[in-house]
Structures are given as C-alpha cells and as structure tokens.
Design goal:
With 427 residues, this protein is of the alpha+beta class. The protein is 53% helix and 17% strand. The structure holds adenosine-5'-diphosphate. The site of adenosine-5'-diphosphate has 21 residues, from helix 10 and helix 13.
Length: 427
C-alpha cells in the first residue's frame, strides 16, 4: 500500500478510536459521529486549501504540515522540486562554464536566431566587430555587409566556409563559417587565417613560378633532342639514349603542365563565370581519343544522357573526364572493358568510369587524390603518369561542389564516380 494511504489510514483509525472513547464517555453517540464527520471533512478541505496555496508559491505557506495523505503528498512534491532545482542549478553551472570557456576562444563567435539577429557573442567578436550589448537583436547583415557573406548567409548551404580578404575595413583574410543548430538558429565562427593563407599563397606561387621557369628551358632541350633524333642513322648508338632523353623530357613537361594546372585550380583567379557545359558531346569526341589511346586493346561502352548538361567550367571539366578515362585505359590490361556513363538520378548528375583493370587495394583508396601518390610508381611512369591526375580531378570537382567516389577491388577493376549537386544540372 502507498505510504500516503497508510499514513491517512493510521490517522483515521487513531482519531476514530478517540471519537469512540469520547462517545462512550459522554454517551453522545450521534453527536460525536456527526461532529467527527464534520471535523474530518473540514480537515480535508483545509489541507487542500493549504496545498493549493503552497503550490502557487504563496509566501509564508509551508508544506508539508502534520500527518495524513496531504502531508505525504506535500513531502513528495517538495522532494521532487528540490531534485529539479538541483538539476537546474547543475545545468546553469554547466552552461555558465561553457559560456565562460567560449568567451576565451580566440575566434569570433556570434549566435544568431532564426531571423539572423544577433543573440549572443563572445569577447573576440566584441573586439573584432566593436560590438556592444545593445547590438543584440541587430541583424547580422547590417553588421557584416560583405556581398559574399550575404550571399553565403542567404544560400542556406553552410557545408563550406567563405573566405574574405577583408572584413569591415580590416585588411586581413578571414574564414567565416555558419553552423546551423536548434530550429534554424546559427552559430557564426569567424577565424583570422591571414598568416596561414599567406603561407599557402607563397607555396602556391613558388610552385607556379618554378614550373613556369622550368617550362622554357625544357622546351629548348626537347627541341634539340628532336632535331638530334631526326639526324641519326637508324643503327647509330645514340638512337636509344636520345629516345630515352626524349621520353623523360616529355614526362617532365607533363609534370610541369599538371603542376601549373593544379596551382591554377587552387588560385582564386580561376573563378570566372560558370557556363553550360555540354558533357555528352564532349564525351562523344573523347570516345575517339580513347579508342586511339587504347590502340584497340580495350572495348568501350559509352552510355550518355544527351539531354543532360552541366553548369561549370568547360576546360577544367574536360580535364576531369579525360583524366579518369585515360587512367582506366592505363590501368586496364589488354582485353578489358571500360564503361563511361553520364547520367542523372535523384541525387544529381554523375559522371562515372568503370573498368575491369588491375584494381586498387583498400588501404590506398583514401590517399589516391594526394599529389604524387601512386600505388605502383613504376607502372605509373611506364604509362606516362605524373601522379597528379587525381589531385587535379579532386580540385576541379571541389570547385564544382562535387565529390569523387572511388570503389575498387584488387584484380577485379575500379569505379570512379563524380557526384555533382542537383543544382548544377542543366536540361
Ligand atoms: P598517375 O599519373 O600515376 O596515374 P593519378 O593521380 O591519375 O596518377 O592516379 C594515382 C594513382 O591511382 C595511380 O598511380 C594508380 O596507382 C591509381 N589509379 C588511378 N586510376 C586507376 C584505375 N582506373 N585503376 C587502377 N589504379 C588506378
């Protein structure tokens, strides 16, 4: 039986005994009975009244008083309340601790509500944007007026960050990223990446300049080698060395070209206007190049959705298509099958190249898009590879908000699929 009922019954039994004793003593049985009933009802009503006052939080009304069911109920409710208060105190302490920690973070943090109004900001944001307490509820667009940021904010696509070369008149490079949380609220994190960005820029410039400087002397050398090759008798001892010199200088030229393409991909200047790129006709032309490159050693299947085009940059996209097709040819032994597909499904447009070639074991797959990463260096060299093809593909795809998905089984073949976002499809 519940503790409340037991307490009530104990009270009732004790008080009934007392009433019986009084009745026996006075011989007023009826009067005692009605008197007791009246007393019992009045007591219940008074307890309910006190309970209600106490629940409402009326000052100076405390509970639980006395015994009985209401005393027990009051005790249980106050125990529950104490445990909730303890929990709330703990939560408050934790959130205070969290806020204090966020105050010390060097990145500027601003939380925004569903209407993009400022709700809270940390010390770094306060310093960087000279924010005052009165700026809460101000719209973030009125504080950060940079058009690239406004476009990013309105786009609703916050997987990537936006990099700005100056912000509110501060001539430094900033990385801004929005993190959506709880019912369209957002957290804006602004990082000062000026030093990091400059270092990366120096590295990019160095690679681009070095490649550029190497290009001219190499062209001269290659030209002389070709002239010397033409002037040799077929049985001359110089035929083989000259041929090797020619192959190696061509390889160096390919590496330099790939390095230049890669640094162009990485530099901001490449971004012009995106155009509609007719992928299917481009692939049809590439089918001829692929057949020539394969020299009849492979069978090809091209499955192309001719009504589907892509919004993007034509030359870089051509480089993606050719890189993946030529890899399939280079890493598929004679007699293999290569299938090239250009199609669309619910997720968006896809370009996919499947081959029945040598395949790649799992441990290499995640590293294939690193510069100069090759599973088999000798084979890559022999087939004219530079180790930069997939790095270029990855960069170009990133520029198109696309992803490269690689699946492969050693000895069975590989599948390279480019997943473009739905917004890039043109019909
Ligand atoms: P490479 O110029 O060496 O081909 P890539 O960047 O194009 O450089 O490719 C990196 C490595 O990925 C290659 O060296 C090769 O080992 C592997 N690879 C790429 N495509 C394929 C494929 N279709 N089948 C098997 N291995 C491949």
């Amino acid at each position: 039986m519940s503790k409340g009922i037991t307490r009530e019954l104990t009270w009732v039994i004790t008080s009934v005994w007392l009433a019986l004793f009084i009745a026996w003593m006075t011989d007023w049985w009826m009067a005692t009975f009605f008197g007791y009933l009246l007393f019992y009802i009045a007591r219940q009503l008074y307890s309910i009244y006190r309970f209600e006052l106490w629940m409402k939080g009326t000052p100076n009304v405390s509970y639980p008083p006395g015994s009985g069911l209401w005393g027990e109920l009051g005790y249980l409710v106050s125990r529950k309340q104490r445990s909730l208060e303890k929990h709330a105190d703990l939560q408050f302490y934790k959130s205070e601790q969290f806020l204090a920690a966020s105050m010390t973070i060097p990145d500027a943090i601003i939380s925004l509500n569903e209407s993009n109004q400022i709700e809270w900001f940390n010390n770094s944001a306060k310093k960087l944007f000279k924010l005052k307490h009165s700026d809460t509820h101000r719209k973030i667009e009125n504080l950060l007026r940079h058009p690239d940021f406004i476009q990013y904010l309105k786009s609703g696509r916050y997987e990537k960050s936006v990099i700005l070369s100056s912000l509110n008149g501060i001539p430094r490079v900033f990385n801004l990223k929005l993190f959506p949380y709880f019912q369209e609220h957002k957290l804006l994190i602004v990082k000062d990446i000026h030093e990091l960005y400059n270092l990366a820029q120096i590295r990019r410039d160095f690679i681009a300049n070095a490649s550029h400087e190497l290009r001219t002397p190499l062209t001269v050398l290659n030209g002389y080698i070709e002239v010397m090759m033409d002037g040799q008798e077929p049985d001359s001892m110089w035929v083989k060395p000259l041929e090797q010199m020619h192959n190696q200088s061509e390889r160096m030229q390919s590496i330099i070209n790939d390095l230049l393409t890669l640094s162009a991909m990485e530099s901001e200047t490449l971004v012009g206007k995106e155009k509609t790129v007719p992928i299917a006709p481009i692939l049809k032309k590439m089918e001829q190049d692929a057949t020539q490159m394969s020299q009849g050693k492979h069978s090809f299947r091209f499955e192309l959705d001719e009504s589907l085009a892509l919004k993007g940059y034509e030359e870089p996209l051509k480089s993606v298509l050719m890189n993946l097709i030529s890899n399939a040819i280079r890493y598929t032994p004679e007699g293999g099958q290569i299938t090239v597909r250009w199609y669309e499904d619910a997720k968006g447009p896809h370009f996919q190249v499947d081959d029945t070639g040598i395949g790649i074991s799992q441990e290499h797959i995640s590293r294939l898009t690193e510069r100069f990463y090759r599973v088999d260096t000798a084979r890559s060299r022999d087939t004219g590879g530079t180790g930069l093809g997939l790095a270029i593909v990855k960069h170009i795809l990133e520029r198109h908000d696309a992803k490269l998905v690689i699946k492969s089984q050693l000895g069975k073949g590989s599948s390279f699929r480019c997943d473009f976002p739905r917004s890039k499809a043109v019909h």
